[in-house]
Amino acid sequence: MTDLHGVFPYLVSPIDAQGRILGDVLGKLSDDLIKAGVHGLTPLGSTGEFAYLDRAQRAAVVKATIEAADKRVPVIAGVASTSIADAVAQAKDYQKLGADGILAICEAYFPLKDAQVEAYFRAIADAVDIPTVLYTNPNFQRSDLTLDVIARLSEHPRIRYIKDASTNTGRLLSIMNRAPKMKVFSASAHIPAAVMLIGGVGWMAGPACIVPRQSVKLYELCKAQKWTEAMTLQRELWRINEAFARFNLAACIKAGLQIQGYEVGDPVPPQAALSAEDRKVVEGILSSLP
Protein backbone atom coordinates (compact mmCIF):
# COMPACT_ATOMS: atom_id res chain seq x y z
CA MET A 1 0.00 0.00 0.00
CA THR A 2 1.23 3.51 -0.85
CA ASP A 3 2.92 5.35 2.04
CA LEU A 4 1.45 8.83 2.16
CA HIS A 5 3.46 11.68 3.66
CA GLY A 6 4.57 15.23 3.01
CA VAL A 7 2.89 18.15 1.29
CA PHE A 8 -0.38 17.48 -0.57
CA PRO A 9 -1.82 20.68 -2.05
CA TYR A 10 -5.60 20.86 -2.04
CA LEU A 11 -6.04 21.71 -5.70
CA VAL A 12 -8.44 24.33 -6.96
CA SER A 13 -10.92 23.32 -9.65
CA PRO A 14 -10.29 25.63 -12.62
CA ILE A 15 -13.63 26.38 -14.26
CA ASP A 16 -15.00 28.83 -16.81
CA ALA A 17 -18.22 30.86 -16.70
CA GLN A 18 -20.09 28.08 -18.55
CA GLY A 19 -19.12 25.51 -15.91
CA ARG A 20 -16.52 23.70 -18.00
CA ILE A 21 -13.57 22.28 -16.09
CA LEU A 22 -10.34 23.71 -17.53
CA GLY A 23 -8.31 20.52 -17.68
CA ASP A 24 -5.32 22.13 -19.38
CA VAL A 25 -5.00 24.74 -16.61
CA LEU A 26 -5.32 22.09 -13.92
CA GLY A 27 -2.75 19.97 -15.75
CA LYS A 28 -0.22 22.80 -15.87
CA LEU A 29 -0.78 23.64 -12.19
CA SER A 30 -0.39 19.98 -11.21
CA ASP A 31 2.78 19.63 -13.26
CA ASP A 32 4.30 22.79 -11.77
CA LEU A 33 3.44 21.66 -8.24
CA ILE A 34 5.13 18.30 -8.83
CA LYS A 35 8.20 20.05 -10.22
CA ALA A 36 8.23 22.23 -7.07
CA GLY A 37 8.61 19.04 -5.02
CA VAL A 38 5.19 18.33 -3.54
CA HIS A 39 4.63 14.76 -2.39
CA GLY A 40 1.11 14.28 -3.72
CA LEU A 41 -1.98 16.01 -5.11
CA THR A 42 -5.48 16.20 -3.66
CA PRO A 43 -8.26 17.18 -6.06
CA LEU A 44 -11.75 17.85 -4.67
CA GLY A 45 -10.75 18.93 -1.18
CA SER A 46 -12.36 22.03 0.32
CA THR A 47 -10.25 24.33 -1.87
CA GLY A 48 -11.46 22.32 -4.86
CA GLU A 49 -15.06 23.46 -4.22
CA PHE A 50 -16.36 19.88 -4.21
CA ALA A 51 -19.63 21.05 -2.66
CA TYR A 52 -20.34 23.26 -5.69
CA LEU A 53 -19.57 20.83 -8.52
CA ASP A 54 -21.77 18.20 -10.15
CA ARG A 55 -20.70 14.62 -10.63
CA ALA A 56 -19.37 15.08 -14.17
CA GLN A 57 -17.35 18.14 -13.15
CA ARG A 58 -15.86 16.28 -10.21
CA ALA A 59 -14.86 13.36 -12.40
CA ALA A 60 -13.27 15.74 -14.91
CA VAL A 61 -11.18 17.31 -12.14
CA VAL A 62 -9.97 13.93 -10.89
CA LYS A 63 -9.23 12.66 -14.41
CA ALA A 64 -7.20 15.76 -15.35
CA THR A 65 -5.18 15.54 -12.13
CA ILE A 66 -4.39 11.84 -12.57
CA GLU A 67 -3.33 12.38 -16.17
CA ALA A 68 -1.08 15.31 -15.21
CA ALA A 69 0.49 13.43 -12.29
CA ASP A 70 1.32 10.52 -14.59
CA LYS A 71 2.17 8.36 -11.56
CA ARG A 72 4.95 10.72 -10.43
CA VAL A 73 3.15 11.39 -7.13
CA PRO A 74 0.04 9.84 -5.56
CA VAL A 75 -3.32 11.44 -6.29
CA ILE A 76 -5.82 11.32 -3.41
CA ALA A 77 -9.26 12.13 -4.78
CA GLY A 78 -11.97 13.67 -2.64
CA VAL A 79 -15.23 11.78 -2.21
CA ALA A 80 -18.14 13.57 -0.55
CA SER A 81 -21.84 12.84 -0.30
CA THR A 82 -24.80 12.69 2.04
CA SER A 83 -25.47 9.07 1.06
CA ILE A 84 -23.37 5.93 1.33
CA ALA A 85 -24.43 4.63 -2.10
CA ASP A 86 -23.32 7.79 -3.89
CA ALA A 87 -20.04 8.04 -1.95
CA VAL A 88 -19.21 4.41 -2.76
CA ALA A 89 -19.99 4.97 -6.44
CA GLN A 90 -17.68 8.00 -6.52
CA ALA A 91 -14.86 6.11 -4.82
CA LYS A 92 -15.13 3.20 -7.26
CA ASP A 93 -15.17 5.59 -10.22
CA TYR A 94 -12.04 7.42 -9.03
CA GLN A 95 -10.18 4.18 -8.41
CA LYS A 96 -11.01 3.11 -11.98
CA LEU A 97 -9.67 6.45 -13.24
CA GLY A 98 -6.39 5.68 -11.48
CA ALA A 99 -6.57 7.47 -8.14
CA ASP A 100 -4.03 6.25 -5.59
CA GLY A 101 -6.26 6.97 -2.61
CA ILE A 102 -9.58 8.45 -1.49
CA LEU A 103 -10.11 11.48 0.74
CA ALA A 104 -13.44 10.64 2.37
CA ILE A 105 -15.72 13.47 3.47
CA CYS A 106 -19.10 12.93 5.14
CA GLU A 107 -21.71 15.53 4.30
CA ALA A 108 -24.88 15.55 6.37
CA TYR A 109 -28.20 17.36 6.11
CA PHE A 110 -29.69 15.68 9.16
CA PRO A 111 -27.27 15.02 12.06
CA LEU A 112 -25.89 11.48 12.25
CA LYS A 113 -25.05 9.31 15.23
CA ASP A 114 -21.60 7.75 15.68
CA ALA A 115 -22.63 4.39 14.25
CA GLN A 116 -23.96 6.02 11.09
CA VAL A 117 -20.84 8.15 10.60
CA GLU A 118 -18.68 5.06 11.09
CA ALA A 119 -20.77 3.09 8.59
CA TYR A 120 -20.30 5.80 5.95
CA PHE A 121 -16.49 5.80 6.10
CA ARG A 122 -16.27 2.03 6.47
CA ALA A 123 -18.40 1.49 3.36
CA ILE A 124 -16.08 3.68 1.28
CA ALA A 125 -12.98 1.84 2.49
CA ASP A 126 -14.65 -1.51 1.90
CA ALA A 127 -15.50 -0.55 -1.69
CA VAL A 128 -11.96 0.20 -2.91
CA ASP A 129 -8.50 -1.37 -2.84
CA ILE A 130 -6.63 1.89 -2.22
CA PRO A 131 -6.01 3.86 1.00
CA THR A 132 -8.88 5.89 2.44
CA VAL A 133 -7.96 9.13 4.20
CA LEU A 134 -10.55 10.31 6.71
CA TYR A 135 -11.30 14.02 6.51
CA THR A 136 -13.12 15.84 9.26
CA ASN A 137 -13.87 19.56 9.34
CA PRO A 138 -16.32 20.23 12.18
CA ASN A 139 -16.63 23.91 11.28
CA PHE A 140 -18.52 22.91 8.12
CA GLN A 141 -19.94 19.48 8.95
CA ARG A 142 -22.98 18.59 11.00
CA SER A 143 -21.63 15.18 12.01
CA ASP A 144 -18.06 14.97 13.26
CA LEU A 145 -15.77 11.98 13.70
CA THR A 146 -15.45 11.30 17.42
CA LEU A 147 -12.30 9.84 18.95
CA ASP A 148 -14.10 6.54 19.53
CA VAL A 149 -15.12 6.27 15.88
CA ILE A 150 -11.63 7.22 14.68
CA ALA A 151 -10.09 4.56 16.93
CA ARG A 152 -12.44 1.88 15.57
CA LEU A 153 -11.93 2.92 11.95
CA SER A 154 -8.15 2.86 12.41
CA GLU A 155 -8.40 -0.94 12.64
CA HIS A 156 -9.64 -1.09 9.04
CA PRO A 157 -6.79 -2.28 6.77
CA ARG A 158 -7.29 0.60 4.29
CA ILE A 159 -7.93 3.41 6.78
CA ARG A 160 -4.52 4.53 7.99
CA TYR A 161 -4.68 8.31 7.61
CA ILE A 162 -6.75 11.23 8.84
CA LYS A 163 -6.79 14.92 8.01
CA ASP A 164 -8.37 16.84 10.85
CA ALA A 165 -9.33 20.50 10.34
CA SER A 166 -10.80 21.07 13.78
CA THR A 167 -8.29 23.84 14.75
CA ASN A 168 -7.80 21.83 17.98
CA THR A 169 -4.20 20.61 18.02
CA GLY A 170 -4.81 18.80 21.29
CA ARG A 171 -7.38 16.67 19.46
CA LEU A 172 -4.64 15.60 17.02
CA LEU A 173 -2.51 14.37 19.89
CA SER A 174 -5.53 12.53 21.29
CA ILE A 175 -6.03 10.85 17.91
CA MET A 176 -2.38 9.75 17.89
CA ASN A 177 -2.70 8.39 21.43
CA ARG A 178 -6.06 6.66 20.92
CA ALA A 179 -5.37 5.35 17.40
CA PRO A 180 -1.63 4.69 17.13
CA LYS A 181 -2.08 3.05 13.71
CA MET A 182 -3.55 6.28 12.31
CA LYS A 183 -1.18 8.74 10.64
CA VAL A 184 -2.22 12.38 10.97
CA PHE A 185 -2.09 15.09 8.31
CA SER A 186 -2.37 18.71 9.33
CA ALA A 187 -4.85 21.14 7.78
CA SER A 188 -4.38 24.85 7.15
CA ALA A 189 -6.45 25.36 10.30
CA HIS A 190 -3.45 24.05 12.25
CA ILE A 191 0.18 25.14 12.33
CA PRO A 192 1.85 22.46 10.16
CA ALA A 193 5.24 22.66 11.87
CA ALA A 194 3.58 22.17 15.26
CA VAL A 195 1.68 19.14 13.96
CA MET A 196 4.92 17.70 12.59
CA LEU A 197 6.55 18.22 15.99
CA ILE A 198 3.92 16.11 17.76
CA GLY A 199 4.10 13.31 15.19
CA GLY A 200 2.20 14.39 12.06
CA VAL A 201 3.26 13.04 8.67
CA GLY A 202 2.59 16.16 6.59
CA TRP A 203 -0.27 18.39 5.57
CA MET A 204 -3.06 18.58 3.03
CA ALA A 205 -3.94 22.23 2.50
CA GLY A 206 -4.93 24.85 -0.04
CA PRO A 207 -2.09 27.32 0.67
CA ALA A 208 0.44 24.79 -0.66
CA CYS A 209 -1.02 25.52 -4.13
CA ILE A 210 0.41 29.02 -4.07
CA VAL A 211 3.53 28.44 -1.95
CA PRO A 212 4.60 24.89 -2.93
CA ARG A 213 8.36 25.45 -2.83
CA GLN A 214 8.23 27.06 0.61
CA SER A 215 5.85 24.36 1.88
CA VAL A 216 8.20 21.58 0.77
CA LYS A 217 11.14 23.39 2.41
CA LEU A 218 9.17 23.65 5.66
CA TYR A 219 8.40 19.93 5.55
CA GLU A 220 12.04 19.06 4.94
CA LEU A 221 13.18 21.27 7.84
CA CYS A 222 10.65 19.55 10.12
CA LYS A 223 11.75 16.08 8.99
CA ALA A 224 15.38 17.07 9.71
CA GLN A 225 14.24 18.34 13.14
CA LYS A 226 15.67 21.78 12.42
CA TRP A 227 12.93 23.34 14.48
CA THR A 228 14.38 26.84 14.86
CA GLU A 229 14.69 27.23 11.08
CA ALA A 230 11.35 25.55 10.56
CA MET A 231 9.55 27.96 12.88
CA THR A 232 11.18 30.99 11.26
CA LEU A 233 9.75 29.89 7.90
CA GLN A 234 6.46 28.83 9.48
CA ARG A 235 5.93 32.30 10.93
CA GLU A 236 6.38 33.84 7.49
CA LEU A 237 4.02 31.36 5.82
CA TRP A 238 1.39 31.79 8.53
CA ARG A 239 0.33 35.08 6.93
CA ILE A 240 -1.18 32.99 4.12
CA ASN A 241 -3.20 31.05 6.67
CA GLU A 242 -4.36 34.28 8.29
CA ALA A 243 -5.60 35.53 4.91
CA PHE A 244 -7.34 32.18 4.48
CA ALA A 245 -9.33 32.81 7.65
CA ARG A 246 -10.43 36.25 6.44
CA PHE A 247 -11.58 35.39 2.94
CA ASN A 248 -13.53 32.69 1.11
CA LEU A 249 -11.32 29.62 0.86
CA ALA A 250 -11.44 28.99 -2.89
CA ALA A 251 -11.56 32.69 -3.74
CA CYS A 252 -8.34 33.34 -1.83
CA ILE A 253 -6.36 30.53 -3.47
CA LYS A 254 -7.80 31.16 -6.92
CA ALA A 255 -6.85 34.85 -6.61
CA GLY A 256 -3.33 33.88 -5.57
CA LEU A 257 -3.00 31.53 -8.52
CA GLN A 258 -4.34 34.16 -10.93
CA ILE A 259 -1.71 36.58 -9.62
CA GLN A 260 0.86 33.88 -10.41
CA GLY A 261 -0.44 33.54 -13.98
CA TYR A 262 -2.83 30.58 -13.78
CA GLU A 263 -6.21 31.25 -15.45
CA VAL A 264 -8.21 29.20 -12.96
CA GLY A 265 -11.41 31.21 -13.20
CA ASP A 266 -13.58 32.51 -10.37
CA PRO A 267 -15.18 30.52 -7.56
CA VAL A 268 -18.42 28.75 -8.47
CA PRO A 269 -21.48 30.97 -7.73
CA PRO A 270 -23.00 31.87 -5.38
CA GLN A 271 -19.46 32.29 -4.09
CA ALA A 272 -17.79 35.49 -5.28
CA ALA A 273 -14.26 36.32 -6.37
CA LEU A 274 -12.18 38.52 -4.08
CA SER A 275 -12.72 42.25 -4.38
CA ALA A 276 -9.90 44.33 -5.86
CA GLU A 277 -9.03 45.51 -2.36
CA ASP A 278 -8.92 42.01 -0.90
CA ARG A 279 -6.92 40.78 -3.88
CA LYS A 280 -4.27 43.40 -3.11
CA VAL A 281 -3.94 41.90 0.38
CA VAL A 282 -3.20 38.47 -1.09
CA GLU A 283 -0.83 39.97 -3.64
CA GLY A 284 1.04 41.82 -0.89
CA ILE A 285 1.44 38.68 1.19
CA LEU A 286 2.73 36.67 -1.77
CA SER A 287 5.24 39.34 -2.79
CA SER A 288 6.65 39.50 0.74
CA LEU A 289 7.26 35.77 1.16
CA PRO A 290 10.78 34.29 0.77
What do these coordinates show?
- With 290 residues, this protein is an alpha/beta fold.
- The chain has a single domain (6-246), classed as TIM Barrel.
- Helix content is 47%, strand content 12%.
- It has eleven helices and seven strands.
- It has helices at residues 23-35, 55-69, 84-97, 114-127, 147-153, 169-178, 192-197, 212-223, 227-246, 249-259, 276-288, and strands at 6-9, 76-81, 101-106, 132-136, 159-164, 183-186, 202-205.
- A seven-stranded parallel sheet has the order 1-7-6-5-4-3-2.
- The chain is globular.
- 49% of the residues are buried.
Quick recap:
With 290 residues, this protein is α/β, with parallel strands linked by helices. It has a single domain, classed as TIM Barrel, CATH 3.20.20.70. The chain is built from eleven helices and seven strands.
List the helices and strands and how they pair.
Layout: E1 6-9, H1 23-35, H2 55-69, E2 76-81, H3 84-97, E3 101-106, H4 114-127, E4 132-136, H5 147-153, E5 159-164, H6 169-178, E6 183-186, H7 192-197, E7 202-205, H8 212-223, H9 227-246, H10 249-259, H11 276-288
Parallel strand pairs: 1-7, 2-3, 3-4, 4-5, 5-6, 6-7
Helix pairs in contact: 1-2, 2-3, 3-4, 4-5, 5-6, 8-9, 10-11
- Structural class designation: alpha/beta
Helical residue percent band: 40-55%
The number of strands is 7
In DSSP terms (H or I, runs of 4 or more residues), the helix count works out at 11
What is the CATH-assigned architecture?
A: Alpha-Beta Barrel
CATH superfamily: Aldolase class I
The whole-number mean of residue pLDDT values reads 95
Q: Provide the β-strand percentage band.
A: 5-15%
